[in-house]
Write a structure and sequence with these properties.
single chain, Arc Repressor Mutant, subunit A, Tetracycline Repressor, domain 2, 2 domains, 78% helix, elongated
């Protein structure tokens, strides 16, 4: 309960006043807990932000896992399109908070939390490539291709999120990301 209250207070401050206004004292006051209680869970403001990113990432992973688990069609472009469309939608659903969280990746704790999602997506892409191209590519080539494709898509999405949010709603942006993913299947 205390952790939830602290994270809700952190979210409120970030959205209302921005990162500059976020202090552990401000969070503790708004959450109605002592600063000592806050420090039991979070040693500094970066750890509060990292925890919010972790929540965001857990939501991303569970939502995108559902896309794969519920997919009935063949693997390939249609699945990539559904997956990437959902990935974009997750970011659009809470755009202001998502943008703020992505802008905090310069902090090591925050970057590590975001990498968790990227590594998960990378393993999915690696599995797809392996199932289609195992006889044509070595294990190392498959890993490298999955790394490049996943991180290219993730980086482009993050850049659009921070620098040009309108692009996230453009069908041609989705098309380009799907093209990148689809090319992973080429021999």
């Amino acid at each position: 309960m205390t952790v939830d209250a602290l994270l809700q207070a952190t979210t409120h401050i970030l959205l209302k006043d921005g990162v500059e206004a976020l202090t552990t004292n401000h969070v503790a006051d708004l959450a109605g807990v002592s600063i000592g209680s806050l420090y039991q869970y979070f040693p500094n403001k970066a750890s509060l932000i990292a925890a919010l990113i972790e929540q965001h990432v857990d939501h991303e992973v569970s939502t995108l896992k559902a896309v794969f688990l519920n997919w009935k069609g063949p693997q390939g472009e249609a699945l990539f399109r559904a997956f990437i469309r959902e990935f974009i939608q997750i970011h659009l659903d809470d755009i202001e908070l998502t943008r703020l969280l992505h802008q905090q990746v310069s902090h090591l704790e925050c970057r590590q939390a975001l990498r968790k999602a990227t590594r998960y997506f990378e393993s999915i892409i690696e599995e797809f490539i392996s199932s289609q191209l195992k006889i044509h590519l070595s294990t190392k080539e498959i890993k490298v291709r999955a790394f490049v494709v996943t991180n290219a898509i993730d980086l482009l999405l993050q850049l659009a999120l921070v620098e040009n949010t309108e692009m996230l709603n453009e069908p041609c942006f989705l098309d380009e990301l799907v093209e990148i993913a689809s090319r992973a299947y080429e021999k």
